[in-house]
Amino acid sequence: MNQQLFAAFIAGVALAPLTAHAQDLAADDVIVTGTTATATKTATPLVDIPQSVTLLDRRRLDDRASRTLNEALAYVPGVNTGSYGFDPRFDAFFVRGFQATYTGVFRDGLRQLNSPLGLWRNEPFGIERLAVVRGPASVLYGASGAGGLVDVTSKRPRAERFAEVQGMVGSYDRYQLNADVSAPISDDVALRLTGVARDSGTSLAGFDDDRYFLAPAATARLGDATDLTVLGEYMRSRTGASAAFYNDAGGVTRIPLSDPRFNDLTHRQWRAGYALEHRFGDAVSFHQNLRVQDVTVDMAYSYVTDPTAPITRLGARAADWTKSVNLDDQLRAELTTGAVHHRLLIGLDFNDVRYRSAEGFGTAPLTDTNLARPPLVPTTRQRFSQIGVYAQDEVEAGALGLTAGVRHDWLDARTDVPAAPTIERDDRRLSGRVGATLRVAKGVTPYLNWSTSFEPNVGLLLDGTPARPTGARQYEGGVKWNPRSGVLLSAAAFDIRQRDGVVFDASTGINRQVQLDLRSRGAELEASARIAAGLDLTAAYALTDMRIRRGAAGTIGNHLSATPRHSGSLWADYAPAGRGFGLGAGMRYLGPSWGDDANAIQNHARTFADAVIHYDVPSRAPLRFQLNATNLLGAEPVTCAAGFCYRDQGRTVLASARYRF
Question: Which of 22, 350, 639, 643 has CB 3.0 to 4.6 Å from 327, enough for a Cys bridge?
Fold first, then answer.
């Protein structure tokens, strides 16, 4: 197995698994200041959560016409979606400087454990809302990253009839049709079906972005005390296989890494599951979430062997298959003892993941007559089984709030590679969290938090052995101010230490457990405010000082690559009532960063502007015309991460017409 060549393609993309869950929010509330169950697994107001949390509702996704999960998260403080420039293959992002791609995304409260290529994708049109928890959250979710997690909530059936059809056309021959239908079929049963069909090119030659997506859902009331929601999904996507550029040692020569004639990735995934709730009276309830899922990725890519003209490239192929079963059982109870109120949570979750991979490499340079895909050869087969038990108590005693939780996980892994003995590994991990809030005058709530995390690592190290799980701990303090409805201001400072991180070493292109000790310190500011009727504003700023305390030779004391020290965003939306007209505009700023861990390549600061204009036809209120522009100024800078370079997408325009009935 040629790991060096394989890593040359996927270097710069992060990997791992996660989950969360949010409560219903008002459909017309673009400034979300309500409650969420993501951080605590119980319905808790944002101001009472001793941790940084951001919620994004469906209206915000619609107004910004988010085409990927990355675009949806671009205005959230502490979330860096720009490390790999334009690359629509996967949603690769960092939270507080730590990769969250592999273990940082949950779907409907259940983990999405990714493999190096078998990453679950999230179609934005199928999302009802998002919740972003910053900082470790393993006490409730088990294997998850140090920086935090994103929970994606799927669209679910509505109690009333609803239908929506939307057509889109945009830059690079983008054509897309969205449809969403929901209706009750009886007093106790409702159905919903959401679909997307897209045919699209991109700014990169030979790099398509096509997709078919279908998501059925059903809810049923099974008696007075039991509710069941069934969720399904099938998605087939086709994109290019590599958006990276070749980079010489000094970061000067940059040419496309892949040949447009030999550059495609086919991605298929399906998932099916349910959420069950049974209430034992008013104070005690049982919740069970179950999902089975499968993802298959097959890609053909090329890599540069001689960058001098004429450029010489060899073809290669890689494939991943990942199957998993996720189960989470929870028992919730509320009780009051004197002046103290308790929200108790006891849970058990189980995750079983089976992963296998294969590779193939060509031996002759690519030409017009030599574009054959090499055959696949099996390389790795792994199975992870994880069982976790957890308990949490949320205490309210007057103005004081306390949240404390503890969890124990048992993780078993088995790895098989050709012509080598089976490798078995057992790990036991204890996770915890303690947080406190204090409500003071005029809606001001300061808080403190200590939490830990751990995450398993899929794949093998240089010596052919599985990596140790990565662990982290965080101290966080901050204040939240909710002076009135529709306004939430927050400030936070944090210190996170992570040990035993696994990365692709850009100097050798080999998987190494070299990030032995990373430290992220920083501060975040966030504001969501309804300034006046029809005028909404969101603003964010993040200071992230990410240092390698122990790591590969030549990197100790350096800044982690592709992690800007300063980043910020501002978005304003104006839609006066009764006029049908609305517009919005935003700015995103990413400060300078390093293009490799040796801090030899420098990325310049980047600024992007986005805008939207929409019009609701007065005589036909359900009909909306909308025009979105992303990167309005047309900047196309190059950014490097882990020694590989990527271009940002230039100006894109997307026009849409939506009819609801």
Answer: 350
Q: Look at phi and psi of residue 464 and say left if phi exceeds 0, alpha if psi is from -120 to 50, else beta.
A: left
Q: What are 365-421's pLDDT values in tens digits?
A: 999 889 999 999 999 898 989 999 999 999 999 999 999 999 999 988 888 888 888
Question: For 281-331, what is each residue's pLDDT tens digit?
Answer: 889 999 999 999 999 999 999 988 888 888 899 999 999 999 999 999 999
The side-by-side arrangement of strands in the sheet containing 644-647 is 254-256, 245-247, 644-647, 638-641
Strand 581-590 relative to strand 593-594: parallel, antiparallel, unpaired? unpaired
Tokens linked to 12:
């710069």
Three-state SS at 278: strand
Interacting residues of 636 by C-beta distance below 8 A, sequence separation 6+: 647, 648, 649, 650
Amino acid at 557: G
- Give the pLDDT band (50/70/90) at residue 535: very high
Q: What pLDDT sits at residue 73? A: 95
500: left (phi over 0), alpha (psi -120 to 50) or beta: left
E strand segments, 282-422: 284-306, 312-337, 340-365, 377-397, 400-416
Give the pLDDT of residue 12. 34
pLDDT attached to residue 465: 61
Handedness of CA 139, 492, 448, 44 (dihedral sign): negative
Strand 105-107, strand 148-154: pairing: parallel
**Distance (Å, rounded) from C-alpha 591 to C-alpha 628?**
25
Task: Please tell me the number of Cα atoms within 13 Å of 652 on its side-chain side.
Answer: 24
Which residues, 6 or more positions from 564, have their beta carbon under 8 angstroms from its beta carbon? 80, 544, 590, 591, 592, 593, 603, 605
Q: How far is Cα 344 from Cα 331, in angstroms, rounded to an integer?
A: 8
The values of phi and psi at residue 30, to 5°, are: -75, -25
Q: If you ran DSSP here, which 8-state letter would residue 463 be given? A: T
Smallest CA-to-CA distance from 268 within 208, 207, 321, 209 is with: 321
Q: What's the CA gap between 62 and 39, in Å, rounded?
A: 25
3-state secondary structure of 9: helix
Average the pLDDT over 106-124 and give the result.
89
Rounded Cα distance, 242 and 59, in Å: 32
Distance CA 78, CA 250 (A): 29
Nearest-5° Cα angle at 108, 429 to 64: 120
- Reported as a pLDDT band with limits 50, 70 and 90, residue 38 is confident
- Using H for helix, E for strand and C for coil, what is the string for 540-589? EEEEEEEEEEECCCCCCCCECCCCCCEEEEEEEEECCCCCCEEEEEEEEE
Task: Please tell me the distance from the alpha carbon of residue 99 to that of residue 455, in angstroms, as a whole number.
Answer: 11
Q: Which residues contact 37 (CB under 8 A, 6 or more apart)?
A: 20, 21, 22, 23, 43, 44, 109
- For residue 298, what are its two tokens? 């097959």
Q: How far apart are the first and last CA of the chain?
A: 55
162 in Cβ contact with 646 (< 8 Å): no
Q: How far is CA 21 from CA 80, 138, 173, in A?
A: 22, 14, 36
CA 507 to chain centre: 27
Task: Give yes or no for residue 53 having a pLDDT over 70.
Answer: yes
Whether pTM > 0.85 for this model: the answer is: yes
CA–CA separation, 198 vs 205, rounded Å? Answer: 18
- Per-residue pLDDT for 334 more than 50? yes
Structure tokens belonging to residue 205 = 């030659």
Does residue 551 register a pLDDT over 80?
Answer: no
Model confidence band, residue 247 (pLDDT cutoffs 50, 70, 90): low
